[in-house]
Write a structure and sequence with these properties.
207 residues, mainly alpha, 10 helices, 79% helix, elongated
């Protein structure tokens, strides 16, 4: 009985993944998913109460992992003394990028769904959640610099948000463009250098 239940669930999830990848969440047909899984509608509703709940089963764990890892990385970073934050900025951000890249490529289909197919679900704001935390942490770092007597030129009120949006949208372009992992590693390394140099210039610090 347990094996039969697992087989049915696997069939539903596999059919759903293919339907969502092909059409996106909004255009995906629950009828097609059920048909392609070879199960009845009644059987489907024993596992999930909606199409969005089904989508969440495919991406929820992965989205939570990346968000939690980023929040914990930022939390630990902000506990450091100000001078150590500046000294460790490059290594900390590189560590995060490399770790999430490994995780993304271990869960590639989930992130393809999350980044390219989530419109119409609560997961559509996944990147925005990362951006919001990045913006907050940037302001916190600027305040830390100021408390150390470092003068930072006034920045346009929209600039930090736009830079953060570009950063995280850019990271996941590796998924949008289906880059092989080796290419993505090279791309993100260069991307990271570009952003680090830009912030060093704006904040007049040496990372």
């Amino acid at each position: 009985m347990i094996q039969e239940k697992e087989n049915t669930l696997d069939k539903i999830l596999n059919a759903a993944k293919q339907e969502f990848l092909k059409k996106g969440f909004l255009k995906a047909s629950l009828r097609n998913i059920v048909k392609n899984a070879g199960v009845t509608t009644g059987a489907f509703y024993r596992y999930y109460d909606s199409k969005e709940a089904l989508f969440g089963a495919l991406v929820g764990e992965q989205a939570a992992y990346v968000l939690d890892l980023f929040n914990h990385t930022v939390d630990d970073f902000e506990k450091l003394p100000g001078n150590e934050q500046t000294e460790q900025m490059i290594d900390t951000s590189r560590f995060y990028l490399e770790k999430i890249l490994d995780y993304i490529y271990e869960n590639y289909d989930a992130f393809k769904l999350l980044i390219t197919c989530a419109e119409g679900t609560t997961y559509a704001d996944f990147i925005h959640q990362l951006v919001v935390r990045e913006v907050d942490s940037t302001y916190t770092y600027i305040e830390t610099l100021a408390s150390m007597g470092h003068k930072v030129e006034p920045l346009n009120k929209n600039l930090i948000h736009i830079i953060a949006s570009g950063l995280f949208s850019g990271i996941f372009e590796a998924i949008v463009h289906d880059m092989p992992k080796d290419e993505a590693l090279e791309y993100l390394s260069q991307f990271h250098r570009f952003y680090s140099a830009g912030w060093a210039e704006l904040l007049d610090v040496k990372f």
